[in-house]
Amino acid sequence: MTRILYIGSGTPWTGGAGYLVRQAFFLHALIKVADLHLVMFDAPLGAPMPPFPCGLTFLPSPQRKNSSKLAMLYDDIFSADPRMIRGYDRDAPRQAVAALHPEEFDAVFAFRTDFAYFAGVLDHPRLILDIDDVEHIRWQRRLRATLGHDGDWRTRRDLLKLRRFEFDAVFNAKLSLVCQENDSDGWPAVPRVVPNTVEVLPEPSRRVSSPRLMFVGNCAGGAASANVDAVLYFLSKIWPRILYDMPSAELQVIGATNPAVQRAAAESSRVQLAGFLPDLVDAYAQAAISIAPIRFGTGTRIKILEAFAHACPVVSTVLGAEGIAAIPGRDIELAYDDIEFSSHCVRLLEDTQSRERIGQGGHALARRLYDRASQHARVIQLLEDFLQMHVPGASSFIQGAIT
Fold this sequence. Notes:
Blueprint: E1 3-9, H1 18-30, E2 35-41, E3 55-59, E4 63-64, H2 69-78, E5 88-89, H3 91-98, E6 107-111, H4 113-119, E7 127-132, H5 135-146, H6 153-172, E8 175-178, E9 192-193, E10 212-216, H7 226-245, E11 250-254, H8 259-266, E12 271-275, H9 281-286, E13 289-292, H10 302-309, E14 314-317, E15 333-335, H11 338-350, H12 352-369, H13 372-390, H14 394-402
Parallel strand pairs: 1-2, 1-6, 2-3, 6-7, 7-8, 8-9, 10-11, 10-13, 11-12, 13-14, 14-15
Antiparallel strand pairs: 4-5
């Protein structure tokens, strides 16, 4: 019987942020082709068991060791490891994973390169690696968006190390996966594109009664968080322009928030921090517009696809919508700067017909390309092909599991 060891983070079976949604999509495909044992970093205390049969091991986040500034400078100069994985106590998670004997599993599926590294499975001979975010590109974009350059010499050197680390991981994996076409360029072994998906409502309800804009995303992280940066950028550069043209507009931020976001919201007018909402159906139905003022990152934004799934029109930066096959003016509105972003928002708040047209265009696109049900069979076939090629005897089990 085919067995796969899954390395991931959190509790994807409970839903939530984009990284959980993507993992849940893969898990529901993996259970169709193999028996699973899950190793999950960062699971919350008292996390529920998955609703499907599997083995389960919860692991805490790897802890960073205390290092002096001199030691960090030494490592920046002489260590081959990038900062993203350096200086952590990796012994505990690796011992826990080693006790599961990953070499005895038919394959290992790892979500993100850093979790695969901390689990010690990057050298598994049948590794499936979902890259998710391409970290060396994400960090470079963050630096350019916030500083206007690639940082000092230590940071530029670290970006090269991070790029090499990710390239080595992809080269050694038997199969690597990314979210979108742009993220598949330039690797030593070309990753397969598996797009992010959402559950698309066949006939979503729209009950807009006020000029409300909505941002959905986890803003509990620090300055390195693309969501935190997006909200702070929007509140400082775009929101005042919108309020000038439409004083009755209101902004709802859904998701956890850090102190910086809380302060910025308190200093702004007509901003509501709604916190985490377990069900977003009503929020999307009542929002006039969903916004994605993202300035850095890779992958595709599930927040945009979710808005499409609910026929809620989206205004995004060009980078925020990267990798999504949406046509500006038909499925989405895209902005190159803060002035254009505020202009799109005001126009859609004022023009009901344009709002309806953009919302329906995004919904049709999501049904055609990003519907979870239609992509599910494709990923199962991808996993079947991998196992039949690399695992002797997997074919008989797979056929039994699918039928």
